Amino acid sequence: MPQDYDKDAYPEPPRQTPVVDKQTALPNPALILSKLFYYSVDLPVTTFRGIIEGIQGDKKSHYYHQNFRRVSELTECQEGDYICYYEAEMQWRRDYKVDQEIVKVIQERLRACQQREGPSYTQNCSKELQQFNQVSKCFQSRYGDLGAYASSRKCLMKQKERMMAEAQNA
Amino acid sequence: MVGMSLLRTVAAFTARLNPLNRPHLATNLLSRTVARTEQVAVRHGSHGKSMFIIKPTDFYDRRFLHLLKYYILLTGIPVAALVTFVNVFVGEAELAEIPEGYEPEHWEYYKHPITRWIARTLYDSPVKDYEKMMALIQMEAEKAEMRLQQLEVRRHMREKGDGPWFQVQTLDKNLIDHSPKSSPDN
């Protein structure tokens, strides 16, 4: 199986599974279904994967995540320096993608927390909820409503408008 | 005797005529058995009586479907076989940390072996594409700058008139005929 992600980077919260206090003699349908799924789907698929990996052998090739160098941003470019504009635009686009993924990770955490806690999630996962609110507010203020033709220049203008509004309110 | 044979022939004839009114089927009729023409044991070589079913032609539909299957599978099967063999025998790459001091080639940033092959043999590296785009931008920027400069220079030369542009050639003064000017009031 491919390696799982680094558990220290995205730590899972401690499991809050309650102790099973069975008071009926009826069988647990969830247990039956999970066992059924395991024997009919999980086990054959895992053994098939093991066979295929046995065929492939140990000469594994690797792939990496690319590290991009930081270049000067749009605010540090001279006017009319179109090369600088291009590099700043590409960097901004990469940062936009990274921010989208960050928001997705936070959303996933909140979703997992809600699934775990059930009806009392508003109380029990307040940290995740607060984190999600903060991140989505920041994302909305920086990138929201820029549209499909978003560019670093439009984002900069949006920031300018935000700063002007703040200066006016103050 | 003659009457008996006549009766026999008449019975046989009526039996042949209306086969439904036959009370005696396999028994002897009078003195000899009569062949049951409609209940003979017929042996087909197939699954029963062959019928001529009248329906509109399905030749064109069946031909179309046959050709469709043929042309789809003509390249579909080799491609499916290739992809299966690559996935089973070569396998996908594993994610790893970039080792110290090592610069991965541009195709080593992809997972699937076919994507890696395409990136290695068919595509330029993203760095080269980036540089190509920057070269185009540089050329266009130089062109735009030169056009603006040309307009500026035109303006200056028209205004000041001391440049090579916007010069109007005048006649050579040796060609002027001064003779009528020496005798005025003619």
Automatic annotation (TrEMBL), chain A:
<dbReference type="InterPro" id="IPR019377">
    <property type="entry name" value="NADH_UbQ_OxRdtase_su10"/>
</dbReference>
<keyword id="KW-0679">Respiratory chain</keyword>
<protein>
    <recommendedName>
        <fullName>NADH dehydrogenase [ubiquinone] 1 beta subcomplex subunit 10</fullName>
    </recommendedName>
</protein>
<comment type="similarity">
    <text>Belongs to the complex I NDUFB10 subunit family.</text>
</comment>
<keyword id="KW-0472">Membrane</keyword>
<comment type="function">
    <text>Accessory subunit that is involved in the functional assembly of the mitochondrial respiratory chain complex I. Complex I has an NADH dehydrogenase activity with ubiquinone as an immediate electron acceptor and mediates the transfer of electrons from NADH to the respiratory chain.</text>
</comment>
<keyword id="KW-0999">Mitochondrion inner membrane</keyword>
<dbReference type="GO" id="GO:0005743">
    <property type="term" value="C:mitochondrial inner membrane"/>
</dbReference>
<dbReference type="Pfam" id="PF10249">
    <property type="entry name" value="NDUFB10"/>
</dbReference>
<dbReference type="GO" id="GO:0045271">
    <property type="term" value="C:respiratory chain complex I"/>
</dbReference>
<dbReference type="InterPro" id="IPR039993">
    <property type="entry name" value="NDUFB10"/>
</dbReference>
<feature type="region of interest" description="Disordered">
    <location>
        <begin position="1"/>
        <end position="21"/>
    </location>
</feature>
<keyword id="KW-0813">Transport</keyword>
<keyword id="KW-0496">Mitochondrion</keyword>
<keyword id="KW-0249">Electron transport</keyword>
<feature type="compositionally biased region" description="Basic and acidic residues">
    <location>
        <begin position="1"/>
        <end position="10"/>
    </location>
</feature>
Automatic annotation (TrEMBL), chain B:
<keyword id="KW-0679">Respiratory chain</keyword>
<dbReference type="Pfam" id="PF09781">
    <property type="entry name" value="NDUF_B5"/>
</dbReference>
<keyword id="KW-0830">Ubiquinone</keyword>
<keyword id="KW-0496">Mitochondrion</keyword>
<dbReference type="InterPro" id="IPR019173">
    <property type="entry name" value="NADH_UbQ_OxRdtase_B5_su"/>
</dbReference>
<keyword id="KW-0999">Mitochondrion inner membrane</keyword>
<keyword id="KW-0472">Membrane</keyword>
<keyword id="KW-0249">Electron transport</keyword>
<dbReference type="GO" id="GO:0005743">
    <property type="term" value="C:mitochondrial inner membrane"/>
</dbReference>
<comment type="subunit">
    <text>Complex I is composed of 45 different subunits.</text>
</comment>
<keyword id="KW-0812">Transmembrane</keyword>
<feature type="coiled-coil region">
    <location>
        <begin position="127"/>
        <end position="159"/>
    </location>
</feature>
<comment type="function">
    <text>Accessory subunit of the mitochondrial membrane respiratory chain NADH dehydrogenase (Complex I), that is believed not to be involved in catalysis. Complex I functions in the transfer of electrons from NADH to the respiratory chain. The immediate electron acceptor for the enzyme is believed to be ubiquinone.</text>
</comment>
<keyword id="KW-0809">Transit peptide</keyword>
<protein>
    <recommendedName>
        <fullName>NADH dehydrogenase [ubiquinone] 1 beta subcomplex subunit 5, mitochondrial</fullName>
    </recommendedName>
</protein>
<keyword id="KW-0175">Coiled coil</keyword>
<feature type="transmembrane region" description="Helical">
    <location>
        <begin position="70"/>
        <end position="90"/>
    </location>
</feature>
<keyword id="KW-1133">Transmembrane helix</keyword>
<keyword id="KW-0813">Transport</keyword>
<comment type="similarity">
    <text>Belongs to the complex I NDUFB5 subunit family.</text>
</comment>
